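Q: what does this look like with beta-D-glucopyranose bound?
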Amino acid sequence: MFDRILRAGLFLLPAAAIPIAAFAQPQAIPTPRPAEAGPAQPGAMPPPLPAGLLPWSDKSLPPDSRADLVQAQITRDEELMLVRGYFGVNYSWLPKTYSDEIRKALPGSAGYVPGIPRLGIPALRESDASLGVANGRHMRPGDTATALPSSLLTAATWNSSLAYAGGAMIGSEARNKGFNVLLAGGVDLAREPRGGRTFEYVGEDPLLAGTMAGEAIRGTQDQNIVSTIKHYALNDQETGRMTMSANISEPAMRESDLLAFEIAIEHGDPGAVMCAYNRINLIYSCENDFLLNKVLKGDWGYKGFVLSDWGAVHSTTDAANNGLDQESAFNSDKEDYFGEALQKAIVDGTVPEARLHNMTHRIVRTMFAKGLIDHPSVMKPIDANADLAVAQADAEEGIVLLKNSKALLPLSAVLRHGGRRITVIGGYADVGVLSGSGSSQVIPIGNMPDQEILTGGAVTTEPGQKPKLPNGTMIMDPPSPYAAIRSEAPRGSRVVYYDGTDIAKAAALARASDIVVVVGLQWMSEGWDVPDLSLPGNQNALIEAVAAANPQTVVVLETGGPVLMPWLDKVSAVVEAWYPGNRGANALARILFGKVNPSGRLPITFPQSESQLPRPAIPGLGMAPVQITGRDTQTPFDVTHIEGANVGYKWFAAKKLTPLFPFGYGLSYSTFAYNALSAAGGKTLSVSFEMRNTGMREGKTTAQIYATPPGGIARLVGWSKMSLKPGETRHVTLSADPRLLATFDAEAHVWQVADGNYAVTLANSATDIAATATVHIEASTINP
Ligand code: BGC
């Protein structure tokens, strides 16, 4: 164990934001008892109605009508109860305002909102999140779940059916663990690649991110539970997340981050939207009239409810009137904003009673619409084998081959010609594959608690207290790459592992090997950003030394997002494995040995250095990460989004910068050609083209279409991922969503498609163009 702590000293990173607590498995709804304090406590309610008399029993009625029937009988106290949630764990650092009944009912997860048993309205049992049913810090001791790869890896598949399958898998595990709300759907664009939650998001492009997040949400909700979409909006860095203001013009916001949310909502129709911690143009997200009332509920006609992030509420009347429908985990906010304060605001009229009805209507209609009432979650065992297969399939398509000189990969071909000794070095590759930390942390199937890697600095001792171990924990998802490589390696191979602590020894081992696989880690977590894009500690030096000793070196990166590669010219192959989840090591080994032909494509630009980013240093860097209850200790500051809508590859194009690896890039063991591009204009853009496998192996490839409006920057407007046999040609047609061609006119409140000639490219990546065309598009407008 101490060996692990010492080795983790390489990283010296701060602990994640959410502290440890141990909690029991979900339990039954408690029997009511008199209320303890304030208006919104369960209990003191009339007894349940007999089943046949439940107001909403007629399943043929639309959700809004069934909610109306509930509301005809609901009391104000009951309404107030529905709009205020509890932290789902009784953390010692939270104010202790829980009754015994609530304490017993807590699901041991992120959140809990009591139901109304007499009206047959279930409690909301809320769990994180997009990478599996989270159980960070072992809130439910012993409870493991399938760890899906990071959402960024899923985005790298460019395969929306895998996003759907992953969402459905998590949704079914969440149901089987007794949850009915999944706090999933992270879709903030990766404006800040060092952002601690880059791995939880789906990249830098609104169409790709919106499609992938939306399909994951659709998959989850098809399991009859609610999924959120989050964090609305522009929560793109963790540094100062409780106070920072993301400042950006309305058109730029509409054309980038809001468009990603809009597209995801269209695909997935999430039951709830989680507003974010940060401010947007100086106004907190959870009391932001523009974002919540005008855009979400107004322009987009959103019918679900807005729930707050944990500790993100700052007011009663502003929040309620400006669009927040439910305060999550009220006891993590500075004050109990939707408790007695809301009751008083309704009595004195500062929050209209109709607004409270609207809040509860949105919540209750969503419970009907998403199946929570007609198909309640029931605890039962998960189907681990089926679920792990979903995770592996995702990893197999999302791992990206970045470099493969002299066709070193697949290794099976090289090893056939005599090489036999494979040395695996570093990255805890004898334990598992890295996962990201924070509220999304899954405790994976097969987790070995004694193999969790403690981080966060030295053991400390306060006078009179016992020594404290650092409390950050890196969780490695099983199996280990070492084991998976051993099982895939041809008979007669000798596979050894060395942890890489002594660089000279690693180099000596490399010299004596036929093939070296060296694993580089970049650990990311909610709550803090990585300070730069370098692999932390001495990992670059290790890779340099190993590659110098043996050029037949394959670097495997397990990173939250992009990293710099000062050793790139010296190694033969680079595989970006992201955080590949449970069975990610199997996917990796199958790619290394050629059982799977890699097909992942970057959903995010890899820069050559931080100086190429819109903000070379993270604004506010150096601020201490805070517990959510300590948010007011951070000094508010502004982050001006000078890149506007030009996030990621668009910024690189606008500034004529050459990235290390562009958005959309990824290699295969086969070769492909895209041709016969024909493009038609008119109201919008339609294209057709051919994709052909010109290599010797079956494989999948992703052709991308970018369009450049007159005077603008190229934007991804569509893609096609196809599996092709050697020599096979497939014909593809696509048409562009006109919003992707348009600019948003804030004064006229409309999308404007400009009349003119648009350049169209058929491409392998944002910078590798296979064919071009020009089309004339007519002027048009689209209502937001
Ligand atoms: C995170 C959310 C998460 C919530 C509940 C917050 O700190 O920002 O993404 O859903 O906690 O765990």
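The two ends are 56 Å apart (CA to CA). DSSP finds 20 helices and 31 strands in the chain.
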